[in-house]
Amino acid sequence: MRLLALFPLNLVVFPGEKLNLHIFEPRYRQLVHDCLEQNITFGIPPFINDGVSTLGTEMKLVGIEKSYESGEMDIRTKALGVFRIREFYRESPGKLYAGGQIEDVADDHTGDILLQTRIKEEIQQLYDILGLRRLFLDLPTDFRVYDIAHHLGLSTEQEYQLLAAATETERQELVLEHLQQVLPILLETERLKERARLNGHFKNLTPPNF
C-alpha cells in the first residue's frame, strides 16, 4: 500500500483519459502546488450517493493552462490507472486535502474481438439515430471500452461499474448489454417522432389487394 492524495469529484475518470480541471478551493490549490514541487500524483475517487467510492483513478498533472490573480488555476491532467482505497483520511498528514492508503488494481487489457465488432455495429446504429455519425468515424479501429465510455449515455453509477470491472471483456459485456437496452427505446422514439410529423399530412398509401 502507499499514500495517495485524493481529490473526490462527482465523475468517473477512465485510464488514459485527459481531463481539464478548474481549481479554486484552497485545499486543491495546495494539492496542485505539491504536484509541481514534489512531482506527486493524486487520485480521483468518484463521489457517488453522498460518499467517496472505494475505487478511483490515479492522475498525473500534465500542466497549468492558466493561473489567475485569485490563485485559481486551469490545469491539464492525464489518468493513469485504477486504485482501491484501503483507508481514507479526510486530510492527508499536514495537508488541507484528503488522502488515503491505496493499492493499485491490475487490469486485463485483452478484449474479445467478436464482442468489439458487435459493439462497433451497435455504436454505429446509435450514432446514426442521434445524428452523431462523425463521432463514429473518429472511432479508432483498436478502441477500448475506456475510449468510448463517456459517449454512450451511461449514468455515473454505470460508468463506475465499468471502472470496477477487472477485465476488458467484462467491460465489453456491460457496454453491449447497455446498448442492446438503449437502442430499441431510441428506435421507437424515432418512430413516434416520425408519426407525429406525418400526422395531419396527406398520405400516399397503397390499398391492399383482397
Blueprint of the fold:
Blueprint: E1 2-6, E2 18-23, H1 26-38, E3 42-44, E4 47-48, E5 51-52, E6 55-67, E7 73-89, E8 98-104, H2 113-130, H3 133-137, H4 145-148, H5 156-164, H6 168-198
Parallel strand pairs: 1-3
Antiparallel strand pairs: 1-8, 2-7, 3-6, 4-5, 6-7, 7-8
Helix pairs in contact: 2-6
Notes on the protein architecture:
There is one protein chain. The protein has 210 residues and is α+β, with helices and mostly antiparallel strands. It has two domains: 2-104, Archaeosine Trna-guanine Transglycosylase, Chain: A, domain 4 (Roll); 113-198, no CATH class. 38% of the residues lie in helices and 26% in strands. The protein has six helices and eight strands; from the N terminus they run ββαββββββααααα. It has helices at residues 26-38, 113-130, 133-137, 145-148, 156-164, 168-198; strands at residues 2-6, 18-23, 42-44, 47-48, 51-52, 55-67, 73-89, 98-104. The strands form two sheets. The protein has a five-stranded mixed barrel. Strands 4-5 form a two-stranded antiparallel sheet. It is elongated, with a radius of gyration of 22 Å. The model has no long low-confidence stretch (mean pLDDT 87). Residues 3-181 form the Lon N-terminal domain. Pfam families: LON_substr_bdg. It comes from Hymenobacter gelipurpurascens.
